[in-house]
Write a structure and sequence with these properties.
Methyltransferase, Cobalt-precorrin-4 Transmethylase, Domain 2; about 270 residues; single chain; alpha/beta; 3 domains
Amino acid sequence: MQRQFQLYIVPTPIGNMDDITLRAIEVLKNVDIIACEDTRTTQNILNHYNIKTKTVSYHKFNEKSKSDEIISIIKSGKTLALVSDAGTPMICDPGSVLLKELYKNDISVTSLAGPCAVTTFLSQVPRDNEYFTFVGFFPKTSQKAEELLGRFSDTNLVFYESPNRILDTLRLIKEYRGNIKVALGRELTKLFEEIVIDTADNIIEHFKDGIKGEIVCMVYASDDTNIDTKTKIKQLKDKGFKSKEIATILSTLYNLNKNDVYKLTME
């Protein structure tokens, strides 16, 4: 018999309704209440598996006010499951506010294994090593995007993006990192699932007529440090920085030889 917890973090399918564990179904059936990002979305899953458990709304716009209410419910002796619309809660979904309060109140918490778009995507994308950085949704401003791309140029950079922004994002990536290798996954686990691994240019061309579905993307780490450094130098020059300033900035941020960087700025 499994240990009884007061709150269960329960992953739900990211697309294919069959991608749910037997334990997740059991927990959702047996807890007293399910806290949902969107009760309508969760109800579709509950109906599919004939789960009658009561639901309450818990999303990013009410998580602060709802956390106290949920803690009171748990302290009254009830058990609760937390789900998001799809995948594992708190991976770019609400829940962190609640989790902090649960630990403060010494409430026992466990997380079930299950679907997550990041791991589903990465498990079918070839990489030279296990290192990657996941940054959630890609920044909406070019300045923050530039900072992100520069900061993580030496590791595989994984992020979520919406279909209406992804082509502009790929163009921005090309502008700051060159025509670099990119992997893009859409509609994971669904009927029209597609993984494309190519240069930024070729992926933009591939989806020139539009793209649909939820998207996970990975920008591969630069495999030529010199070329990538030149790209960074150009970015900083465009911002008005002088050679000595650029050498100081890049050598500090990326552990590069300051004199080598300075020489590159003079080319």
